[in-house]
Amino acid sequence: MKISKWFSFILLLFMACRPASEEERIAKNFLHHLSRGDYEKARDYVVSSSLTVLYDFQNIGISPDSLKTHPISWEIDSISHFNSDSARVYFIWNGLPEEMNMVKEKGNWKIIF
Predict the structure, then answer these.
(1) Which of 60, 81, 103, 104 is the most exposed place for a label (fewest CB within 10 A)?
(2) How many domains does the chain have?
């Protein structure tokens, strides 16, 4: 009996410490930088065709100074894969459900923004 409890504890610990997938890591980094108004770093995580949209967002979006006093909360809910090269990220942005697509661009996961 003690062995099964010990095994369950180890299994639970292992599952809690599992590394995030590459897609999840990219999505988290992008949302982190976007939510803080660090558009320059957020650009590292988008496909090249989305750079113009991100530049526009930077010009008309919320300023980094405003985000310091009114932070944005976000949390990734789930990631669904369409195939090995595309996925959709479902997340909560300031309490509202949102989604964004991801694709592999030159072998690396990128956000379509």
Answers:
(1) 60
(2) 1
CATH code for the domain in which residue 37 is found: 3.10.450.100
- Residue 11 falls within a domain, yes or no? no
Question: What's the Cα-to-Cα distance from 37 to each of 43, 54, 67, 76, rounded to whole Å?
Answer: 11, 11, 7, 18
Q: Is residue 10 part of a domain?
A: no
Asked if residue 15 is part of any domain, the answer here is: no
Residues 102 and 21: beta-carbon distance below 8 Å: no
In a domain, 2, yes or no: no
* Residues of the chain below pLDDT 50: 11, 13, 15
pLDDT score for 60: 82
- Distance between CA atoms of 9 and 6, rounded to whole angstroms? 5
Are residues 105 and 66 in contact, defined by beta-carbon separation less than 8 angstroms?
no
Burial class, 29, CB count within 10 angstroms (exposed 0-12 / middle 13-18 / buried 19+): middle
Under a CB-based contact definition with an 8 Å cutoff, are residues 102 and 87 in contact?
A: yes
